[in-house]
Structure formats: structure tokens, C-alpha cells
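Researcher: Please generate the 3D structure of the following complex. Treat every line as part of one assembly.
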Amino acid sequence: MTAVIEAEGLGKRYRKQWALSDCTLSVPAGHVVGLVGLNGAGKTTLLNLVTGMVAPTTGTIAVLGGRPAAGPGQLARVGYLAQDAPVYPGLSVAEHLKLGARLNPGWDDALARRRTDQLDLDPGRKAGKLSGGQRAQLGLTVALAKRPELLILDEPAASLDPLARREFLQDLMAAVAEEQVNIVLSSHLINDLERVCDYLIVLADSRVRIAGPVDELLAAHHLLSGPRRDEGRLPAGMQVISASHTDRQSTLLVRVSGPVLDPAWTVTAVGLEDLVLAYMKQAAGRGRRGNRHLEALT
Amino acid sequence: MIWLTWRQFRGQAVTAVAALALFAILLAVTHPELASLYATSGFAGCQGGSCGQPAGAFLSQLSNLTPFGGPQAFRLLPAGANLYVIVYTVGILFILIAPAITGVFWGAPLIARELETGTGRLAWNQSVTRARWLTIKLALTGAAAIAVTEGFSLLQAWWAAPISRAVDEGGSVSVFSGSRFSPLNFATGGIAPLGYAAFGFALGVTAGLLIRRVVPAMALTLAIFAGVQVVMPLWIRPHLLPTDQTTAAIAASRATLSDLGGATVLTASAVPGQPGAWIISSGAVNAAGQPVSTLPAACTPTAQSPSPGPGSGTAFQSDVQRCLAGHGIREAVSYQPASHYWPLQLTETGIFLALALGLAGFCFWWLDRRLA
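Model: Done. Output below.
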């Protein structure tokens, strides 16, 4: 089966600043993929590359086996709900559905109408007068009703209050279950992703830190605590992601392929949030230039 | 895509149609009196080369007229202006600024607004490529921009036909004085408005694409377009085709002295045997054909009278002409003959259409390859 996203040495530079560099990924089909990272880590840049909104500076990318935005056929296979759910303020809800119907050969009008009915979106209402949550719902409806094989959502819940966010994500998951679509979803909130994703990509400081199915990631990471020990004296194949030491004790978050056998360690499981934070902290700890606040263009 | 383009454009389209309709009504209301004036002026029936006098009479009648119920109705107008003068001037101004308006208000936001508000990410992720999106946007909105300017131009040409004919025949009164080569008339007559409209629109689209924000893109579009409208008639248009040269007697070239920044120059205002020619440059030459930089002191204003103001007028100028002719001075003129009007129109329109196409091509490339 073709990978949903296949990237090789992918990089994007804006002027002198690399928004994404050296990204090699192979995301298999059939997942809800969470893309997590701080603001400015390169999430939007990666998603813009996946949708073909920008062209890569280096490397290659294939989405569902094709070049992003290469033609109408490829565009029809990928749905994109961009950050802040852009809609035309002067067009009504019904006109947005008409826009979708006119511009997409595979448009599912019944699906679109069912969703606007369920969500209580007044068809005659101008999109500019919708609330943030309703706008996101309208954007999602347009993206879903074009019946893409891959649906990409960039911070879909960012502008929503906690209650609306939870509802939106639940609704998204219900839609996914019905439509059998691959999803890539970005967020800087791990809690959002933890609830819905079964595959995770952690971006920090414009690089992919780790990517893989959530259960495999959790199985490969352990929290070790025991008598103080130098990190250099750990067995080969054990990679330290984060470490904290007191005078007598060391606590390490490590990645290993097999079980931890050393009886000196107390081994505990790692939560997804701790794991992600450890990778982010690791990237920050390397003291890279402070481009964290440089949100990608567009 | 056509539906979306129309849906986004229809408000502007209604405004444009309303403006055209208002202008058409203004012209239609004033046209009957203008036509009857023309028909009874004695100029309408004039054929052949010697219509200058009736043409002038017609124009002066037109500019002295106070139509529609006497002067009270026009108290708001500046002194000496009447409805025909104003409609004629306003018409020319409309044609002149219509390409700027469509470039600024239709062209600049075309892509810039999609980028600024982020809606481009909605539009360009439907199953329509950006190239096709841009093709339809450019074609429909651009065609409308050209149609609006050309609409103004055609209406004005129809209404002002008697005036244009009178000016061509040599009449020259008040604002009805510029020949069809004059900067304003050339850019607003013939086919030139097509080129200006296409260029202004493409310029706006390109500025919007590069600047990515609507208001700065509008400002830049206006600045560049206004610059081009000044540069073209002053420095480029005169040299689009090779000029013809001739040397004529001072009286025949109706040369007049004028004081230009301290230097006294002799400027021709007619080319003998070339009615309606556009004089690009002229200057005094001696009997040997060499340019004369300093006119004989005996003939210059200081010798003749202290200041050659307007009051000293015709008598003074003909004295100077006689004096200079006595010194063997003739006038060298370089000019575009009247027959160059359409070739010049074609060349200028061609240049602007080519620029517009070039800018459009650049937009395609940029939107497809470089857009961030």
C-alpha cells in the first residue's frame, strides 16, 4: 500500500531561515496522524509542503504517491483545512457548499447538507458572521465533502474554547469513522492529539524528532530511576532523551528497542505527554537559535 | 470556477455598470443640443481643406453657450465653464483614470486579498489548479476592466465626434484645443485605452501577488501607473516611430519666441504642408542649416520691447518673425506626420498589451512555483 506521506530530505527555507529541514518521513496509510510541536516548529510548513501550497527548497515529497497539487486529480485526493479555517466572509454557508460543488468533481452534496443540518449552520448566514467554531465546522464540511483520501487539518481546534474544541474533535472522529479517510492533524496541544491520534510526529526546531505509531513509541520508551549514574556508562542501544540527576539518584527517559534488564533501575511506563515534552526539551536544550517564535509564513 | 469568479466580482461589476450608465445618461442628455448646434453651425457641411474658420466658430459657439435655462442653473460651475466644456473634460478624465481605478480596485486585490485573509488556502485546495484559478480570474476580471475603459472611450468618441472633427480641422478654443496627438487625447482616443486598461489591471494583480497585502499593493499600482502615464507621452511616445524632418520659413511654421529658463527659443507650431502633424521638437537654424543657439540680438525681446508678454501678442511675434527671417534664420522641425497616428496607436497599444501579457505570465509562474 502506498504511503500517505513519503518525504526524503525535505526542507523549506524562507529567506535565510529554515522553517523545516532534513525531514525524512514515511507515514503508512490507515492512521490518524498527529503532528505536534511548539508554535514555529515547522508544522504549518510541513503541511503546506504536503498540500503543495509551497514548493520544497530541498528534498522530495510524495503524497498518496503523487506530487502535491500536481493537478486536479491530485488536488481532489487531498482535503485541507488550513489554520484559522479561512472562509470567504462575504459568501453564505450555502454559497460555500456551492463553491465546493462547483470546484470538486467528487463533491458529496448529501454529506455536506447532512453536516450543515446537524451542526445547525444556517445556510443563508454569511460566513463572516459565524463564530470561530462554526467557521471551523464549515471549513471541515467543505474539506470532507470533497471526499478526499487524505484530510489535513492545521491546528483546527486552536481558535476554539475548550468545550467547542472537544466537540469539534469528537465530531471529526465521528466523521473519520464514517468516511474512512486518512487524517493528518497538527496541534501544539498534546492532549488534543492524545485523544484522537494513533500515529505521532514530533517536530521541534524545524526538525522531525521522532515519528511512529503511538503504541510503538510508548513501548519503546521507559522512565528509569535508580542510583546516580553517568549517562556515558549506559549500555549500547539505550538512547537518553532526557535526564535529571540529584546527588544520589538519576531519572532517565530512554529509548530502547528491547526490555531493560539492569535490576538497578526501576522501570516505569511513560505517558505520551511526557514523551513528547522530553523530545521538545531535548531540542530546546541543544541551544539552537531562538527561531521558536518564527511562525511559518502563510 | 466561473461561478466563484463571478460571485466574488459581481459587486464591483454592478458599480462599473452603474458608472458607465451614469456617464451614458449624461452624454445622451447633452448630445441632442450638441448635434443640432453642429448641424446648424455651417461647419457640418464644410468639406475640403479650408474649414479651419467655421471649425473655430463652431467651437467658440459651443464653449460660450450656457445651455438649459440660463446661467442660474450653473452657478456652481467655475466662471467661463459650461456644460459642454465640463462633460468633455470629465469624459477624458474618466477614460484616463478608468484603467487606474480598475487596476487599483480590481487588479490589486485579486490575489492579494486571498493571501492577506488566507482564503487562498481554501480556494487553492479545491480540485482546481492554481493555474486554472488564475486563468479564469484574469480572463474574466481583466476582460471586464478592458471593457469598462473601452466603454467610456467609445461613448466619449461618439459624443465628442463633432468636437474632434473641428479640432482636427484646426479649430482651437478653450479646452477644445488639443489635437488627437495631445497627451490626453492620444491616450484616451483610438485603441490606446485598451492597452492602458490591460496594463493597469495586470500591474495591479502583479503588485498584489508580490506585496501580498491589499492596501500597499493598491498604492504601488497607482504610483507606477501614474508614472507610466506621464513617462509615456513625454519621453517614449515621440520616439516610437522615426520622426520626419523639415526646414521651413519662420512664418510658414508659425514659429513664436518664448523665454525658456533665460534662453530665448523659437518654437514652431505648424508644419507647412502637414496639417495635423505632431511637432516633437523645433529650433532655429541659419542659412547653412546649422542650429542657432543665440538668436541675433537685434531681434530678441530686449531689443524689440522690454518684455514679450501676452499683451504684445501677435504684432510683436510677427515683427520678430520678419526680423529673424531677414537674418536668414529658418525653423527646423522634427515631427510625426498625421499619417503616423494609427501606427503610433498600434505600437503603443501593442507595447502595453505585451507588458500586460508579460506580467500575467509572471503571475502564473510565481503563483505556481514560488508562492509561499
